[in-house]
User: Fold these one by one.
Assistant:
Number 1:
Amino acid sequence: MTSDPSGLGRGGAAALVLPALVLIGVFLVFPALWTIYLGLTDYRLTGLAAADPQVVGPANYLDALGDERFLGSTWLSVQYVLGSAVIGQACLGFAIAWLVRDRRGPLRRVVEGVVLLSWILPGSVVAYLWIALLDRDGGTLNALLNTPGAAWLLDHPMLSLVVFNTWRGTAFSMMLYAAALESVPPSHLETARLAGASAFQQLRDVVLPRIRGHVLTNLLLISLWTFNDFTPFLITAGGPEGASETLPVYVYIVALRDGELGVGAAVSFLILAVNLVFALVYLRLLRARGRDADVPAPARAATRTAA
Amino acid sequence: MSGGRAHAGHMVRRIGVFAFFSVVLAFFSLPMLWLATAPFDANPSITVSVPEFTLANFRAILDNPYALGSLGNSVLQAGGAALVVVTLAATAAYALSRVRVPGRDALLYVLLLLSSIVTGTAAMVPIFELATRLNLIDTHLGVILTVSGGLLPAAIFILKDFMDATPTSYEESARVFGAGPVQILLHVAVPLVRPGLATIAVWAVANVWGGFLLQFILIRDPQRAPGSVVLYTLYTEGGQPDLSLLSAFSLLYSLPVVLMYLFVSTRYGFRFHGGIKR
């Protein structure tokens, strides 16, 4: 075999690949497939249906699609994704990247440093930091704004979560756009400026066409991650009265806290289907551009498992 | 005249940019101030204030039955997952890089696709079920295997890139001198891709250390719970949280990931690592 410098042979290669494939098969592929099956049953965590689950067909799916709580959760998830990812993270991330692009001093390092820090701190730490910040009685925000007793998490739970997640995730967009802007030749901007183009025109006509691939990549990835984000559970636990119950929180409460595994699995499958659409669009984008420099390396950007 | 206007416009722009940076700095640092002050405050409150300096809060960690142990659990789970992911991904990536298997690229793409869509959120129900049936609830092994299954496709993908970039001539000479495939893998291929292995290990550790949902689902026993889960119970269970303990423990638990990032960024010039996270 000429293309086998290692002398492994097919058998050797299979033996080396197999352990990884088994683990992936059991803990990644199988759960995905099993979700579909569980969603077709009346399986429960406890009680009669736990011992002997029956196949109930597409009832769970149809029930979910007609259930007001599910539809409400879906709408909250849409708000969360549009508000915090598409508007919050992407716009703020771009603004920061654009304004620091030709600075090299300490200001840039400090700005990038705090933005990055909010991204790398563990989720259960930042959740409490925001609970403390927004607390009704002793919260730092109320002390600063002189609005004692304003219960941000109770009166404006979704707005609070959207602002929180903008804070949490802007770093990714900032870094991706900073890398993208380096591909825009300064001479092109200079030419446009000398020709009298306004800042907005420069952005639209010179910058945007060059970083379009990055913009799309960024929007797809941050939307996918935000859609699957479980951190709202740590901050508001879906409350008050379901007012911040995004889909991931809804699945957890229905399936694992209240024990309706079949219903939870049906909703999980719908989440999976949405994820698949995001990922397929992303992969198509990568394939269309091939190894074009305009799109970041897939392995780097695509690798983030929501935890 | 027009020169003066341009100058004024320039000033306004500069002031605008400066104001923007001030707001950004305030917005991003405000929530984190508490983490910097409260752990060192003799009477920590929920509000940020200049601390009355003390280190006594860190003693509260020793008095709590689960706090310190949970960090040990985090080390075990993160280290275990890093070991499994690096070992299995390296062997698989090596084989896939050196031996032509039909459908290899398609397989890798499908696995990568799956790993990005089968998130903890979408798969929590079947993962909980699976772990229950395999008796993996309340075990470190359960967390390690579940997390590894999700991280492996991307790890293989990245390592295969590293392996593809290394010349095969070393392996050919090693064969001439009679080395077997296992020796070649361990003594020739692995040392060449050491930076790639380090990247994957750091990435896996960061993922598991900060991870919450899977650990929260798989582990009920506080003796086995990692830092993320024990921290969550500190502010959700049992009424008013003990702020001395909570603040000191938050800081101690955050420190390793922050240090790891500082290390990676100074050592390798951290600019854009979209992957190294959760």
Number 2:
Amino acid sequence: MEAKKMAIIATKGTLDWAYPPFILASTAAALGYEVQIFFTFYGLQLLKKDLSGLKISPLGNPGMPMKMPFGPKWFKGLNWNIPNAVQSLVPGYENIATSLMKQTIANNGVASIPELRELCVEADVKMIGCQMTVELFGFDHREFMDGVEYGGAATFFEFAGETDICLFI
Amino acid sequence: MPIRSRPAGCAQHRPKQLDARGLNCPLPILRTKKSLSELASGQILKINSTDPGSVKDMQAFAKQTGNELLSTTENGGEFVYLMRKH
């Protein structure tokens, strides 16, 4: 029986939104799927050799709980509802939020993004970078991890047209 | 401990162990897949997990990959699975 196939278009370049494509791709691969991810626009950030620049931004994101990853239980349970106007004025706010999020991720036994991406690579998930966006944003192929292929929309459809599951993230 | 009892026919084999405690989705499944790849067909893997989501996930994994989930036991927030490689 031919393996099932899944294609994902990854368009987001933040730490939080890096999770869905890599979680789904690695899990699908473990279930026997052949998987391709097409990284376009901000999604290209997920292909960078150095992923330490990925951040979250609570600014303008009312869905994000702002809780501390340390301290007693009652303290961890507090939701710090900080107004957008204050968030935008405090220098380094995103850096602080990002380091707190990374601590929360580690506390919960959730894999890091470099770890998940490596698991995808080990499982032969094929990574395609959008060449148009590479040029549009002035990136250089040397900034990206090894093994990435570059192509455009037609390249994506060549595989996506034969898939069982196709997701836009 | 009931999890110590071994399925018939495998009495001479000690199940291979996977300690996935403290790991969250999707790591228990990915580690299970990796550990199974190191086993021969018919061998049994024992997986320990603390992820409540792994109960449904292990069933779904077994169903989709053809590996057989022999048992699921819970003991004080820890889940133990026995899976036979396809």
